[in-house]
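Input record, target 12 of the design panel.
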């Protein structure tokens, strides 16, 4: 089939032990559910070519486009702390890579495309609900300005998948800077394959960190660079209340994108211990644990790279430890800078961190909605008469009022005008996030009733998160009422 994609597949040129070559397994009746037209254009692809019967057949895996070199990538990973030496793409197949309109190389992958040599007991398939969930969450993150993989399309397969119940099957076309993970390095380290590790380091530097191209200590510099990108990413997650839910090392992208939207969710009422994932019994990946666990994952990456860092183990450990410390430093300063902005501070003062913590503490005690508190704070920054609208979000409004006294004093030392300050705050405090109850409603309508209306409306509302929503989208700002609250989210694998 003539391809809408101008493929140029660098990963397929790596040695055979990096992957298994195989084509997707065809499905009974491909049907297009959603095409991401803006993303298609960014990739230099005509959206009309995708949004057609031929496009559906191609993105369901029934017809291979010219130039595709389909493969399932090998990787390992620590899952909830337990090392699994072989995971790999058990239900995803990389079709190939394209250079987008800005010259950036992007992977085109079909998720849910059938069994592979890495499937273990799984069926290689995905269900419609989780596919649409990944579509919504990725687009929401992208609109928020957070690095993420994105959905190019979702198709249904016309085949059932069997989970706890029988569900409609679907395939997601996922676009990523690459699908190399921390676990990809662990795969080769576990086999003592130093040659493959060195090859992977060189590949990742060329593709994602070209500024390190001349490095005389590539593995060490790559480690520090990955740590820095992860630190920025996790700071962004925390600043918007995002909980990934399953930060295993196989779900941590080496390019610093948010990847693998399973049980992820945004927090409504602020509580640092929030966990949604039904499989995260110990709260390992709770909201406030995310920076610590990202650091833990980076230590696993460091371990995998030790042999390339120094032939003397002790020296290698010392140097790798120093490199990973970049994470903590970058994370702290990045998060502080973001939180400062969220409360309208452009200048840095030494007590700012304490002021931020005092607000978070009040929000926690008062079960205040994370997103709405900051958004309304932007209004109150412009017009103190609107403070009541912030205070009413707290179970005990005094919690907010007491904090606001110190905040007002601190604001007097800022040089921005009221209007500037409020506008800057709005640019970092979203009005609309993909609230769990809205996501669930949209998925339920699609899966139970074949009604894609709520999915499309939510997707549209999520596209402009920092604007004041018009009347049509205003309801998406609202937190759930008690009976709408979602208590658990599921991987759906
Ligand atoms: P995840 O929890 O989606 O990050 O997946 C963890 C591992 O399980 C990866 O190796 C996946 O490829 C594999 N996996 C997840 N779901 C399936 C499935 N339905 N069939 C085969 N493999 C799967
Ligand atoms: Mg995964």
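The sequence produced for target 12 reads:
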């Amino acid at each position: 089939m003539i391809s809408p994609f101008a493929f140029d597949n660098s990963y397929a040129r790596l040695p055979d032990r990096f992957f298994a070559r195989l084509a997707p397994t065809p499905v009974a009746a491909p049907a297009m559910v959603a095409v991401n037209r803006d993303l298609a254009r960014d990739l230099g692809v005509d959206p009309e070519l995708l949004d057609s019967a031929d496009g559906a057949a191609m993105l369901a895996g029934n017809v291979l486009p010219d130039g595709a070199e389909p493969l399932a990538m090998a990787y390992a990973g620590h899952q909830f702390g337990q090392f699994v030496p072989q995971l790999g793409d058990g239900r995803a197949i990389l079709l190939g890579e394209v250079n987008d309109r800005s010259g950036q190389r992007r992977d085109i992958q079909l998720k849910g495309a059938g069994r592979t040599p890495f499937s273990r007991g799984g069926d290689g398939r995905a269900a419609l609900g989780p596919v649409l969930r990944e579509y919504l969450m990725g687009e929401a993150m992208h609109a928020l300005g957070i690095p993420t993989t994105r959905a190019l399309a979702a198709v249904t397969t016309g085949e059932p998948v069997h989970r706890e119940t029988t569900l409609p099957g679907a395939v997601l076309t996922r676009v990523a800077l690459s699908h190399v993970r921390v676990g990809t390095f662990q795969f080769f380290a576990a086999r003592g394959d130093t040659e493959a590790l060195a090859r992977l380091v060189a590949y990742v530097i060329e593709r994602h960190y070209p500024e390190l191209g001349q490095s005389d200590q590539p593995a060490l510099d790559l480690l520090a660079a990955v740590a820095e990108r992860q630190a920025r990413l996790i700071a962004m997650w925390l600043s918007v209340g995002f909980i990934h839910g399953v930060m295993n090392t196989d779900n941590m992208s080496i390019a610093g994108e948010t990847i693998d939207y399973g049980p992820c969710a945004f927090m409504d009422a602020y509580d640092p211990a929030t966990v949604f994932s039904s499989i995260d019994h110990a709260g390992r990946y709770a909201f406030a644990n995310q920076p610590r666990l990202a650091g833990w994952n980076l230590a696993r990456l460091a371990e995998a790279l030790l042999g390339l860092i120094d032939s003397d183990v002790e020296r290698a450990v010392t140097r790798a430890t120093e490199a990973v410390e970049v994470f903590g430093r970058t994370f702290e300063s990045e998060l502080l800078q973001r939180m400062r902005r969220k409360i309208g501070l452009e200048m840095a003062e030494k007590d700012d961190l304490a002021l931020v913590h005092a607000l978070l503490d009040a929000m926690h005690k008062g079960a205040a909605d994370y997103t709405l508190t900051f958004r309304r704070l932007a209004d109150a920054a412009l017009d103190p008469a609107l403070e009541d609208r912030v205070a009413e979000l707290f179970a005990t409004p005094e919690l907010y009022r007491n904090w606001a006294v110190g905040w007002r004093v601190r604001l007097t030392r800022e040089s921005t005008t009221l209007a500037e300050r409020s506008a800057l705050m709005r640019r970092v405090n979203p009005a609309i996030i993909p609230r769990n109850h809205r996501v669930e409603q949209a998925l339920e309508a699609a899966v139970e009733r074949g009604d894609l209306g709520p999915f499309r409306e939510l997707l549209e509302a999520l596209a402009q998160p920092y604007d004041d929503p018009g009347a049509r989208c205003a309801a998406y700002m609202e937190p759930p009422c008690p009976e709408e609250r979602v208590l658990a989210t599921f991987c759906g694998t």
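The pocket of magnesium ion (ligand 2) is lined by residues 250-251, 260 (CB under 6 Å).
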